[in-house]
User: Fold this.
Amino acid sequence: MADPAPKQAAAPTSSTNDAEQGATLKGLADEVLVRRAQKGDMDAFDELVCRYQSRIYNTIYNMTANHEDANDLAQETFIKAYRALHSFKGDASFYTWIYRIAINKTINFLKLRKNRHQMSLNDLDANAENDPELVALISEKTPHRDLNLAELQEKLNAAMLKLSEMHRLAVVLHDIQGLPHEEIAKIMDCNVGTVRSRLFYARQQLQAYLSDYLK
Amino acid sequence: MNMNTQGNEFELVRKCLALKRHEKPPPGYFDNFSHSVMARINSEGADAESHWILTLWNGLLRRPILAGAAGAGLFGLLLFCMVSSSGNMQPGAGAPPELTAGLPQAAPNDAASEPNSLNNVAPSLLAGESSTNPVGMPQPLPSLFPPVNFKVQPASYTRGSN
Assistant:
């Protein structure tokens, strides 16, 4: 499922008033923060960055399989959003709007990079080793291959990079980020049927790429 | 491959994809992320300002006529500022009446009543500007003190009166 909306601690502030203002901003809806940011309130935009940084970074990271590229693209996404904030009319949610910016930037980047993929994978957190589904997957499906989680991670990312950008995006948004089909359709600017079709084809491709490891 | 098998295989793929949710960036990465973004926004704003000045400067360098016109305009503006500021430095000029009320008025130009003052100088000398006296005699500035008139009487000595 999707990560819950990140509610990370605000940046350390120099005074009590700033801390109070940060706490106040945390309770505000996106629309209010956007309106404030459009009027030049940098603290409001900072709060929007804190709110979506995790999801935007993770989406880009899962598309590029490279931490450094994901870092640059995520920062550029928010900078572009700040520059284009005056043109945001609120027709879509801020969430959908910033996802579109991130995805357009990422796809353009991947097209420029073409097939020169260089993975720079993040470490797995401690929970991965305790995840019963993952433990079962490795012990049951690869009993003779001595495949550990790190190896599976590498194989999985390599398989993901073989998918086309649109098919990879469908998998990332649905199977990793946990977004519903309707939301993905809005972000990808297509209909729900297309999303389902892309998901089906992408899973089929992944299954084929990973067949040696999942028999 | 029937539908059940296919669904089961997709389930395995989805379980496998769950591993991606455990990939995390270095610890503390998101603590500094928003600071980096805001710093880049601020620095790009400053760059945009310096870029504007640089563009203007390069444009002036490429077009000497435009640079000359801009220089002449600036010089004219400077001259205008100097002239207007010197006009404001005249005593009492432009000052509100309440500030100048306590000042004594300039002495009337009556040469007969004040024989020792500068007013008894011949008007031709005051008004006469020449090559040796290009600005003429300055107008007397208003005095803060009333003029003092000494009444001098000649002393007389009579010899042999004792």
Summary: The longest strand of chain A covers residues 123-124. Chain A touches chain B through 47 residues (CB under 8 Å).
